[in-house]
Structure prediction request, 906 residues.
Amino acid sequence: MSSSPLSEADFRTGLGALEGMLASQPDRKGSAAEAEVKALIERMFPGFVAAYDIYLQDQRNIIETIQIGNLVKKDGGYSSWYSGPRTAVGEWPAYREVLSSRLPESAVKAIDDSTTRILSRCANPKEPGARRKGLVIGYVQSGKTANYAGLISKAVDAGYRIVIVLAGMYTNLRAQTQLRLESDLNVNDANEKAGIAWWLMTGKDTDIAPKNPVGMMASTGNVAIMIVKKHESRLANVARFLRDIPDETLRNRAVLIIDDESDQATPNTKSDQDLVSTINRRVRDIWKEVPTGTYVAYTATPFANIFIDPSEEEDLYPDDFAMVLPKPDDYMGADSFFDVNQDADHEEDEDIYSLSHLVSQDDADVLVPHGRDIEAFEPAVTDSLSDAIRWFILATAVRQLRTGKVAHSSMLLHTSHRVRAHQLLKDAVAGFTEGMALNRDDEEEEFRSVFDREIDRAAHLRGAEDSPGWSQVWEKTKEIIGYVTVKIDNGQSDDRLTYPDDEPQLVIAIGGGTLSRGLTLEGLVVSYFLRASNTYDTLLQMGRWFGFRPRYQDLARVWVGPGLLDDYSHLARVERELRAEVAALEAEGKTPRELAIRVLAHPGRLQITSPGKMSNTILVHAGLGGTRRQTIYLDRSPSGALRAQEAARTIVGAAVERGLSHHLQATKSRTTSASQLFAGLANNDLIEFLEHYWVADSDPWLQPSAMQEWLELHGDGVTWNLVLISGPGRLGRFTYADGIDVGVVSRAPLRAEFWTPDRLPSPPPPGSDVVNIRALMSSTDSLLDLRILADNGVLEDPDGLLDSADTNDVTSVRRVRQALAPSTGVIALYVVSANSQPRPSSKTRRAMDAQEDLLGLGVIYPHAEAEDDGEYIAAEVRPTLSDDDADADVTTLTDTEGDFVELGAA
Prediction:
């Protein structure tokens, strides 16, 4: 063979040789095994090592499966036993054909790559006694079922012989999963070419039986598969089935447990560690019966999973691996519908608002039952609900005109968990839709009004799709309006939501728990969602509008209740950070057993998950070094504004009196609008300013006491640059001191329907009038002080870091600040005009209408440590002590950013 990059067939041949060598010499580990493998490759495939990196760049799935330097990792790490999937004959090739008939090749490849990565972390089915526990994090409504079906098919090809799918808490969800896997994996037919015979132990209407035959497990070609509801007796039946298999047989029949929606019911909900919740105990019982195999927890909301007590060996903490599924192309997640940016550079009304509407409190009060007297609840179709229903029908019509075919189309209506409320709401909605159908000729004006408001609202997502004119849309609307049905899907409903292949549904689905998790609403176009929750996982799972909207992304809409826009914006950030942390953990080759996964805490009322699932967690006070914070809540009352102005003038006056170095921003026009800088303020200057300046308690780190505490720990040798940000001046100027004035900036606040002060953790001061400007600082302000100093010849930047920095990238900014001024923090003052006005096109902003200019504060902390911003919650991982540490009372745990958390020894 030449030294050119190997073909895929050649490479797989080499991997097969590698796998064979490892199988025949299972005791070889570490560098000795690595040297022998490389020698073998050199002999059999000259040039393989040189071509290795080139090939791996193109074959990411095999990169992560075979890493020569990481063949065997002790203590539950990764093992490269898996050499990749079959390509010609087997369960995976058959399933890949199924996927290819439904999905674009890029999506099929993503599933192929990710399932190869997952299986390579699982236990080797040909190594009796091997056991692994792991976690796979997907996205809500993103195709997790397709992914674990792929994992099942590859696992069976690799030697797994018992497959247990724990399919949620509800019968309809279990049945949905049953039918999906039966069809996709073709488990009703034997794969004779692959030598596989499926034994299906559950059916659409039959869960696992109390007593099951086990004789078929004597044959190595038989694969038992069961899709089981998380119910105490059903899970007990599974454990009994495993116990009935002879020990030696079971030891050689690897078990794959897929726990779908694994954060629901499986984690222990008892706060006392001596108590164990029922479902958790039953799943533990199943795992205890598995001598060889893998437990894989699948979820989009992994908070409860990563908070399981790692010290409980029998529990289901993902000791051995945690992985993130790639975000699929064209997937619409939380960051599609809700804002995650807080930067004044962005448009006031970002595209993100085009998909989301806020329901007023008045409408919510009509549609959400309050108190215990459900009989007094009289829901009615409010204006916002009327708009949502009309847009649902219109959007369905537009989609049909675009595609030329009729498909399932759904609207989610989720206002309460109470079953009786669902029935009363159904009566109101059904009466409304029936009235529209019977009087369709009189409805054109109302429909046209909604159409005109919505059709171009998200035009940026339309792509090359057509936008049919009103006359076409109205004709199609009149045609389909009579097909709208209203269904209830809850635990007591006798008319559950179904989507027959031969009967497209145009359905408004009303429900609670069953619509909150797992169940897929086909063709979901509109969601009207008022169901509040105070936990991350519940809110995210109830967001059933996340998912794929092929050819109708621009038509998707969500109406949410008061406060939920803020909540989901925070959750979008949490999701992004959590996935980044897990990906970093995997890239470093570390396991959750070695390094706890952290979750960003909410500064206000939201909890991460139920308290019973957080009994083993600790609060990690992540540091602030190198990060920025900004006040987005400003008090526009005359007393509040004047108080802030006085605090600002005091700190500027102190800088002037002390003769601190004063610099102007260098600008092309050299106008007096340039921002100004005083260098060399002390820690006490900032503390005294904060003591006189009000900061909402939603930001605990800008409270004077917290700042004092942080500076006492990290503030040695720290100085502060005071930057007086200047706007263009057309709105007016503000004077800090004689000869020191700046142009004011415009920051229009959110309208009352998008935010009210009751969203703060605690009430603001009496007499205050707090507004939310959503963003104060611009991204360029993060390095403005250093640019001013460099332009004035005070700061040297020989490597041109300031010119090459990406100010939109937090990591890039922190890297520059750490290199050029690690011991320097920034106090940035902004004068926000009392007459700040929204842009004419704004849908979310209003005029400031204050009597006095307002003062906003931005702080960039000196780079004392490599720290993250905010408070995080993590499981208390107790590292295993070596013999040398056996007498230690305290150990330290390094987190992914290098901070240390003191933990009691195990």
About this structure: The longest strand covers residues 824-832. The radius of gyration is 30 Å. Residues 1-13, 19-34, 48-79, 878-906 have pLDDT under 50 and may be disordered.
